[in-house]
């Protein structure tokens, strides 16, 4: 069985991510979104748009510490679901990812196509022997 979770991944979920989006927007910026009201805003003024909370970090509106907090919050969200899934299956389980993530190292945030760094190439690999007695 292969189960794929998007989180932790942009767009970040959770209360801290929502708080940071509001703060960035209070600065007059729009965090890129699929919300039609926001799309109208950045269709008319592309200069006020950041790509996401990673863009808010790159533009200096979000600290490295905050970027890490929202990543951890997203990891906790998905691990709650993984924990529920583990209750239903037996045997060895591997939790991994398709890539790593920049969380402020060298001023970088997120992940980029064709950017090969250690942070992106090292992926988690957690083995759980989920044997129920």
What does this molecule look like?
This protein is of the alpha+beta class and 133 residues long. The chain has one domain. 41% of the residues lie in helices and 15% in strands. It contains five helices and six strands; from the N terminus they run αβαβααβββαβ. It has helices at 15-26, 36-44, 53-58, 64-86, 118-121, and strands at residues 30-31, 49-50, 91-96, 102-103, 109-110, 125-130. The strands form three sheets. A two-stranded parallel sheet has the order 1-2. It has a two-stranded antiparallel sheet with strand order 3-6. It has a two-stranded antiparallel ribbon with strand order 4-5. A hairpin with a 5-residue loop joins β4 and β5.
Task: For the structure shown, list the relevant keywords.
6 strands; 133 residues; 15% strand; Alkaline_phosphatase_core_sf; two-stranded parallel ribbon; alpha+beta
